[in-house]
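Appendix B, Record 12. Input sequence as logged:
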Amino acid sequence: MKKIFCFLLLFGSFTVYSQSLKKYAIATTGCSVLSYCEPKFNITYSEDSAKVYTSECGDNDIYYMVICIELKQTLSPVFKAEAALMTYVNHLKTQFKVISSTAYSTGHKLNGNEKTRGIAEQWKDDEQFNWKVKGWTDGRFLTVLLVYSKKDLPETTVNPFLDGLLFKGM
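Logged structural output:
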């Protein structure tokens, strides 16, 4: 009886907390993202008329946000796009009222692709939300994936989302 109870307890907690990633298109960009919840994208335009696709959804008190900017002109070489990505993420820190952050880690390559670059950082905002942020670029798009929660952010859940971007044609 004790073995059956332990099995049911283990199985029950696995089913309650198990989540699966699904692939979702980022509107009509040709890019996609892996997410635990279904993103619904809104389209706005930046000051230079670039299309900005945004989405936010939540699952189990953890919130997943995607910001994808389709640039008007390709930024090349890719290190210039990475610099633009850093500038944009710094802008987001102001928008989200970040009060502390780690230093950027830079030079990430999405799925090992040399034509991409990524940056990563962790934040805490003025409402005590914990944030993990990863920005990606291929020179045609600047995409920032953000996860936030009042709880600790489990790497095994969060990192697959942060690394789950697929650029158009890649």
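The longest strand covers residues 51-59.
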